[in-house]
Amino acid sequence: MDYATFLQILDTTVRLATPLLLACLAGLYSERAGVFDIGLEGKMLMAAMTSAAVAALTGSVWVGLAAGILGALLFALVHGLASITFRGNQLISGVALNFVASGITVLIAQDLFGQGGRTPPLSGGARFNAISLPFVDSLSVVPILGPMYREVISGHTFLVYVAAALVPATWWLLYRTRFGLRLRAVGENPASVDTAGVSVIRLRFTAVLITGVLCGLAGAYMSTGLQAGFGREMTAGRGYIALAALIFAKWRPWQALGATMLFGFFQALALRPDVIAKTGLSIPVPALDALPYILTVVVLAGIVGKAIPPRAGGEPYVKER
Amino acid sequence: MMQKLPTWADVVLVPLISLLLAAFVSALVLLAIGQSPSEALKVMVEGALVSPYGWGYTLYYATSFIFTGLAVTIAYHAGLFNIGAEGQAQLGGLGVALVCLALPWPHWTLALPAAMVGAALFGAAWAAIPAYLQAKRGSHIVITTIMFNYIASALLIYILVEVLRPDGQMDPASARFPAGTKLPTLHEIPGLSLIFTKQVPANVTLFIALAACVVIWAILWRTRLGYEIRAFGKSEAAARYAGISPVKVTMIAMLISGALAGLMAINNVMGESERLLQNASEGAGFIGIAVALMGRNHPLGVLLAALLFGFLYQGGAELGLWTSIPIELRTVVQGLVILFTGALDQMVRMMLGVVFRTRRPQAA
């Protein structure tokens, strides 16, 4: 594999890792607050549809982005209602919302556009376009790093850079602010937070809504950045890969970046069978597809370090009376 | 605050009201996209319940859902949420295909038991790894079974494309099974052929599914093992104190669960498509979740809920054929049923509690 091909694959890695990263960080907030969310997939799908549909109707990707966030927030709200207010089973709620999203996105898109559950292809101002970072041309002459800067770092869409910025932001919020301390505490020991006079319900709802916003970004990126329009089931299990990455990262933001980059790299490699063939190894494409899931099981099995979820995760909080 | 409802209300009213709520929200969705809910219901009932031909499809779907519903049920009684029935059903299909293609079977009565063993073994094997990891390493079974669903689908794509696909065939599918493995459909069974005058996909597997309901009921409520499973599901600490081995119960409950999900494949792979296709289970494993929740995790309830979802599936297909309502409506209804019966059940109970509280003073 020559350097140019390597850079191409890295570039694809960044593109494909972005929705995983956004969804993974989304899940991080909710699960750190003690609310399991296997409904990342559904929220992403919903956001992908609403953002592409509204972008197609208004011609503005920014209005589309707002609609995507609203679509995902709606689902996050139902999840919060079921798992916080009514203390229902968080896992079942997530599964249910994934099914609802899978069906309802097609129903709405079909009703709006009549194109078999797809939105019309987006172009121009209705989708995010590549941003060229400063000094790309002048730095190109620098060996190794110059082309790397031009091919891999520069030339992505707005939401890719937002996702990258959210990693340190999330770290700072979680570990350097009072809100973050409380958020982590409510996922480990909600009774102690309650004793300190802080509302468990409000904290958890805040976390679940942040999850909704980030899933909204992830979904909007899928249909208006990565691709130009919505298609049925377009998230194709990315919500679950993000969940796998979250476990792989042991619910920590920087590690989430690493895990999603790794899984994005597998996806990018799976798109280039020619490159794999050239290495002389015969790795079947399905094996690459399955690799994130297999790695997650390995981590869950405690073979490579133990993944211990937030202790109060999945448990509805009942105030003592 | 948590007033107890009478048992009959909890068993009958809670699922019924959940179903009504799901139907109500679905109707709102239909209205929102400019369709008529009553017209949709009419098409569904006519397509799925009026003619024997429609029933032939409804019962075919219901057969698959009974298996996956029972699979989720038995795991649920052990306190395990098996989302992996889909992957286990896919592997069951592989087991059926390997058995059916292995020998030139002379008659289906010989092929069926062998295929059942293949289906159950492969399904159970696929459940065994998550079960072991849960029992021994404490890895959360929900996450591992989700992962195993994806690994199963990748594995099947590989096997269908690289191993089982006959030379010269384009689509990723196995060769056709020998004629001796063909299961009689309801149209070909003497007596029933008077009702089912046309060829229908529902086949003898239906009777195996009904038998499975009885067997699972007997295991859960009439054997020591069933007692251990239910005790473990209710309270792990109490069960452990009573000398019940958590490893044993987790493993056995999940193996039975996987075997049941795998057995579904004799209905769709052996009974209907007669070769192994990609994604043969078509989401039936996930519908098992809805069926088990709707059926209150009792085999009789599972049977009724499976019929309901059989109707929903056949009716939904008819909607896709005859109206402009997309077939995906059934996924929405499925999700809503899971939501109301499994996650918002507390809300339904609170609503019912209000009714029962206001009724009681009048009765006294």
From TrEMBL, chain A:
Matches recorded under Pfam families: BPD_transp_2
Domain of life: Bacteria
Topology of the protein relative to the lipid bilayer: Multi-pass membrane protein
InterPro entries linked: ABC_transp_permease
Molecular function via GO: transmembrane transporter activity
Spans through the membrane: 12-30, 50-78, 90-108, 158-175, 205-230, 251-270, 290-309
Keyword line: Cell membrane, Membrane, Transmembrane, Transmembrane helix
GO cellular component, as recorded: plasma membrane
Localization: Cell membrane
PANTHER family named among the record's database cross-references: GUANOSINE ABC TRANSPORTER PERMEASE PROTEIN NUPQ, SUGAR ABC TRANSPORTER INTEGRAL MEMBRANE PROTEIN-RELATED
Protein name in UniProt: Nucleoside ABC transporter membrane protein
Automatic annotation (TrEMBL), chain B:
Keyword Cell membrane: yes
Membrane-topology annotation of the record: Multi-pass membrane protein
One Pfam match: BPD_transp_2
CDD domains in the record: TM_PBP1_transp_TpRbsC_like
Localisation: Cell membrane
Transmembrane region(s): 58-79, 91-108, 114-133, 140-161, 200-220, 241-264, 276-295, 302-325, 331-352
GO molecular function: transmembrane transporter activity
Keyword Cell membrane: yes
This protein's GO CC annotations: plasma membrane
Keywords: Cell membrane, Membrane, Transmembrane, Transmembrane helix
Source organism, top-level taxon: Bacteria
Protein name: Nucleoside ABC transporter membrane protein
